[in-house]
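Q: Please design a sequence for this.
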């Protein structure tokens, strides 16, 4: 297996509402003709939204979740100011700020929000991570 992640798909309660949330952030949909799902190109990987019940059915698991699933999704910003702008923008669109941005022990700056479906996102600036023009994070060796 190659060392990569191709697609992250989130189960959502209301596909149209969640799609509008990300489009309101300026994200551009891809594969627009796909029915019942929304895809977005995100740097070197893809991001998808799929109705929660359909995602559970597709995976063959129970629909009822158990809250925090021990992971978060991260958006790495190019500056501390961008972290603050993104958190303000998502809050204005209905996201809940879980942890306001602050300087953190590893030398960066980050905060957390929950999106409209309760998924946990970190918005972080890490001075050791380079973000290329496509938005891909380049990790140091």
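A: Design:
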């Amino acid at each position: 297996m190659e060392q990569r992640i191709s697609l992250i798909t989130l189960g959502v309660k209301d596909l149209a509402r969640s799609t509008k949330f990300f489009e309101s952030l300026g994200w551009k949909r891809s594969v627009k003709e796909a029915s019942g799902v929304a895809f977005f190109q995100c740097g070197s990987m893809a991001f998808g939204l799929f109705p929660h019940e359909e995602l559970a059915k597709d995976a063959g698991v129970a629909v009822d979740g158990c809250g925090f699933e021990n992971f978060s999704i991260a958006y790495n910003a190019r500056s501390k100011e961008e972290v603050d702008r993104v958190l303000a923008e998502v809050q204005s669109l209905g996201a809940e700020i879980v942890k306001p941005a602050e300087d953190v022990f590893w030398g960066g700056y980050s905060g957390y929000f929950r999106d409209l479906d309760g998924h946990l996102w970190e918005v972080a600036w890490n001075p050791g991570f380079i973000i290329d023009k496509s938005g891909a994070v380049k990790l140091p060796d």
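Q: Thanks. Anything notable?
A: The mean pLDDT is 89. The first strand starts at residue 7 and ends at 12.
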